[in-house]
Amino acid sequence: MGRAAAACRWLGLPAAARLEGTVAVLSPHLDDGVFSLGAAISAASGTVSVVTVLAGDPQSELPAGEWDARSGFRTAGAAARARRAEDELACGDVGATPVWLPFSDHQYPRGAGDDEIWERIEDALGDARSVLVPGFPLMHEDHAWLEALVRVRGLPGRRVGRYVEQPYAAAWTSGPAGGQWGALGASARRRLAKRRAWRRYASQLPLLAGEAGFGRVLRYEVSRGGEWVQWS
């Protein structure tokens, strides 16, 4: 796709495929789903839930892990509470329902084995007919773990898509090679909704280059026509 055509598609002209029906976005952490698919979520014609699998334990008194400490938190529970509040606001900006599972990321003990976690994920997906999971570049160990969990267990009867993860892809890759990746449609107004939602994650932005980080993602998506997904 040429630059002009990609930019037109990013602006919603011509119309690209939108998310339709009941959709669930599986997000490893409390920001990945919105960072990666916020505009497409906002433009969806059906209902969208953002299911964060590693949303942490708000009651935990464990000392903050390295990332949470760098974000200004003293305990794992404080980080979970603050980041859930940010995610609620961000999901509101893009019209999604946040769903939080109480498991922990790589900084802490997970809190359950894969079997129990999978049961909770299946319950959280509800009647979603389409499910989007991390797909590229899978640089973070939590993202790779979640993608493998879904791939091995399977989601029969549901349409599964793999999404390009931001800001990882924009910061460190030139994009996925091979496969039928395509851009999801959204208007300029929906792109602005994603920008508002991005800013809600205030505890994370200093570690993600703030507005410069968003600018990098913006340029990446403009050059490719939008947020990329590969459907199974």
Structure notes:
The chain is α/β, with parallel strands linked by helices. It has a single domain (3-231), classed as LmbE-like (Rossmann fold, 3-Layer(aba) Sandwich), CATH 3.40.50.10320. It is 44% helix and 16% strand. It has 9 helices and 7 strands; from the N terminus they run αβαβααβαβαβαβααβ. Strands 3-2-1-4-5-7-6 form a 7-stranded mixed sheet, sandwiched between helices. Helix 1 packs across helix 9 (210-224) and helix 2 (32-43) packs antiparallel against helix 8 (188-200). The longest helix is centred in the middle third of the chain and has 19 residues, at 76-94. It is globular and about 50 Å long. The protein starts with a helix and ends with a strand. The model has no long low-confidence stretch (mean pLDDT 94).
What's this entry about, in short?
This protein has helices spanning 3-10, 32-43, 66-70, 76-94, 114-125, 141-153, 168-172, 188-200, 210-224, and strands at residues 22-27, 47-52, 97-100, 130-136, 159-164, 181-184, 227-231.
- Write down the CATH class: Alpha Beta
Number of strand elements: 7
CATH architectural grouping:
3-Layer(aba) Sandwich
The parts where pLDDT drops under 50 for at least 5 residues are none
The largest pleated sheet is described as: 7 strands, mixed
Q: How many DSSP helices?
A: 9
Query: Hey, roughly how much beta strand do the residues contain?
Result: 15-25%
Distance between the termini: 22 Å
CA radius of gyration:
17 Å
The main sheet orders its strands as 3-2-1-4-5-7-6
